[in-house]
Amino acid sequence: MIQHPAFKVEEWSVRETKLHFDVLAQTESIFALSNGHIGLRGNLDEGEPHGLPGSYLNSVYELHPLPYAESAYGNPESGQTIINVTNGKLIRLNVEDEPFDIRYGTIHSHERELDLRNGILRRSVCWTSPAGQTIKVTSTRLVSFTQRAIAAINYEVEPIDTPMRIVLQSELVANEEITSKQDDPRAASTVTKKLISEENHAKGMLGLLVHHTQESGLRIGTAMDHVIKGPEEMAVDADSSPDIARLTITAKVKPGEKIRLTKYIAYGWSSLRSRPAIHDQVIAALSAARMTGWEGLLEEQRAYLDTFWGKADVEIEGDPQIQQAVRFALFHVLQAAARGERRPIPAKGLTGPGYDGHTFWDTEIFVLPVLTLTQPSAVADALYWRYSILDQACERARLLGLKGATFPWRTIAGEECSGYWPASVAAFHINADIAYAVVHYVGATNDLKFEEEVGLPLLVETARLWRSLGCENAEGQFRIDGVTGPNEYSALADNNVYTNLMAQLNLRAAAEAVERHPKAAHKLGVKDEEVKNWLSAAENMFLPYDKRLKVTPQDEAFTKHEVWNFSQTKKDEYPLFLHYHYAHLYRKQVVKQADLVLAMQLFSSAFSAELKARNFAYYEPLTVRDSSLSASTQAVLAAEVGHLQLAYDYLGEAALMDLYNLEHNTQDGLHMASLAGSWTALVAGLGGLRWQDGSLSFAPRLPEGLKRLAFRIRFKGRCLLVEIKPGEASYRLLDGEPLKTWHHGQEITVSTKEATTRPIPSIKAGAPPKQPSERTPAHREPGGSK
Ligand code: BGC
What does pTM read for this prediction? Predict the structure, then answer.
């Protein structure tokens, strides 16, 4: 197991007990706070040193040109990239003329703690300045789950042994300088366009800045208000200039005394509202936060999280690292989505600028399935966002000569932002991925109002796309040719099985939703004939099979290609896309990330148990996991076919992706899909959760070393608790009416009265599969790494 000294293993916290400058940028992502609307990287309060400063607002972006050496029809000309908005978290400290800067002087102690139960980031430092003054600084930061426009910081300074003059400068800073430039395509594009100042104001305890973006037409307001408690001898001064609003507090503080600053920060943005309206909006948000007060904000935060954990917690006995990692993961997934309110959930949440802040299929296939069963309201919100960009998706389909809607592969505001069409436009599966999320959200909540208003139009327009993209051939097969599936090392292939199964689900789900909402469907122009066509396409959907190898090919031709020369590929040549041209990769059997294996997870009943085992054995030696979206899926299937140790190894990789920086790019932001995937590896992998006929089924099995796994699931208005021990599993409802489910194929009814306990049947797995050389997942010791 890879060891990293940065964080201590604790059940409910991620704690860093020493400041490691080499992992500063990584810790800024790990310690990021967000509520889905505001995102603040875990930068030090004083701003420097930093890895990458970052304050983000969901959907605030700037445009940049997407240049092509050879332009072609339909290529997007303009890209969108997330921007670092006004930094409201800055509090600079001067101790007797000396700036508090931990690169100088002596650090006696430095600790940061992300508290997953209270939803706060704590910091405490004891430092002696180069001139010999010793101080203790403690700060607590939160981004409120209950007041979406609000972040707050409580900052305290105390002198240790001598009286001293202390100057605190609490600031709002726009257009911060960012120096980082990277060659990795997964990092952000550099946008040099500055925010334009419209208003700056500072008076009393208040400061405010309003700016607008140059190209994307967005206006951003940031305001701060303060409560100060300190010694009698204290002066407060406020000043502002176009990019800075500043409150300066000067005090003489004696040992035994403290100066305490509570800073409330409000953010607002709009593409429509005027400067005065944005001004008023942030001032109003501040006023509400001040009325709640610091203690009140802390209480609200804790209460919000108590409710969340009460229905979503996962408990593990026998592996404290995974215990910590899965709670860390759930916390960040919640942060990315909680108050997004009809805005997207980007691949990195709001923890960093990686992938330009874009939203991909990661959301619908990795993140939303977890939220569907833990925080369903966030799923409705995220899908509302898809609905809000439906018109753009329909327009794009027209441009591409197709019917219905084609959603962008990557975007912030709805327009396609990928300049590489073989792995974007051609990845049509994104459209059915959205349909998949709609179907499961409605299945888990019975939210028929949502289905009528939002789900139906999404299902209908995506079904229309499949019907126009595919074609029925002379043999009556419905084929979908020339598409790219999840495995981006194969492109423009015919009949990708994942895509075809997804399209089949999409077509059928649209027909069923039309039947449930005939009036709404009529308004969308749906005719009986059209529905018949969808159903016949679904019925005749071509799903290739390789009779010679007795496996399912990822796409029609895949198993006929030459196998990648793994023995000649060196360890440092992974990820392959940074070392080999796609033209080379596309011709070979090499799998970037689970594709057919993902199809087996999501469409479990479409494959027999024997076929799943054969397919898994076939794809393991070809799968290099050059994407963080792979390990969790491989964990799920490894567990299903009985390779429990391998499932455990993959679980470790998914769960520790960011805490251990396994992809070496956590500095750009956290991997939301992999974080969500750690829940999936546990619940769908070791818990064996699958969807079966609109209900849930379980087939739990623990690897050696894990003594207990318990998880909670919200389903059809109930909360179900599943507890798995080595020889048995029990099921109990924490609330709600009795529920039918399955345990290893056996029907059971669970209720609040008593737990239903069943033994776990043993499984005989085939020979353990081999991964490509150099790509075997790290072996996880029973009981977790010490
Ligand atoms: C993966 C995609 C994913 C994207 C963003 C790529 O490396 O291949 O499947 O959507 O990263 O996470």
Answer: 0.97
- pLDDT-based confidence at residue 178 (cuts at 50, 70, 90): confident
Rounded distance from Cα 409 to ligand 1 centre (Å): 10
Q: Which of 185 and 68 is assigned the larger pLDDT? A: 68
> Ligand 1 centroid to 406 CA: how many Å?
18
Q: Which amino acid is at 671?
A: H
Residue 463 and residue 507 in contact, taking contact as beta carbons nearer than 8 Å? yes
Instruction: Read off the pLDDT of residues 533-551 as tens digits, 9 standing for 90 and up.
Output: 999 999 999 999 999 999 9
Instruction: Locate 156 and state its tokens.
Output: 């305290």
**What atom of ligand 1 comes closest to residue 488's alpha carbon?**
8
Expressed in angstroms and rounded, the spacing between residue 26 Cα and the centre of ligand 1 is: 20
The phi-psi region of residue 664 (left if phi > 0; otherwise alpha if psi is between -120 and 50; otherwise beta) is: left
**Separation CA 507–CA 243 (nearest Å):** 52
> 200 with 209: CB under 8 angstroms?
yes
Check residue 23 and report its DSSP letter: G
Region of residue 753 (left: phi > 0; alpha: psi -120 to 50; beta: else): alpha
Q: CA-to-CA distance for 264 and 200, rounded, in angstroms?
A: 17
- What token pair was written down for 303? 């209460």
What domains sit in the chain, N to C, each tagged with a CATH number?
A: 7-63+78-177+191-302 (2.70.98.40), 344-544 (1.50.10.10)
**Over pLDDT 90: what percentage of the chain?**
95
Asked if 248 contacts 236 with a C-beta cutoff of 8 angstroms, the reply is yes
For residue 182, what pLDDT is reported? 64
Q: Which residues are catalytic?
A: 488
Q: Whose CA is nearest to atom 7 of ligand 1?
A: 627
Q: Are 96 and 133 in contact (CB under 8 A)?
A: yes
Q: Hey, what are 723's tokens?
A: 């507890």
Q: Is 474 helix (H, G, I), strand (E, B) or coil?
A: coil
Amino acid sitting at position 727:
G
User: Would you state the pLDDT for residue 786?
Assistant: 46
For the Cβ of 663 lying below 6 angstroms from any atom of ligand 1, the answer is no
Q: What type of residue sits at position 638?
A: A
Q: How far is Cα 594 from Cα 731, in angstroms, rounded to an integer?
A: 30
Query: Which DSSP state fits 483?
Result: B
Residue 592 labeled ligand binder: yes
The helix (run of H) or strand (run of E) holding residue 650 is: helix 644-656
**Order of strands across the sheet that contains 38-40:** 33-34, 38-40, 55-57
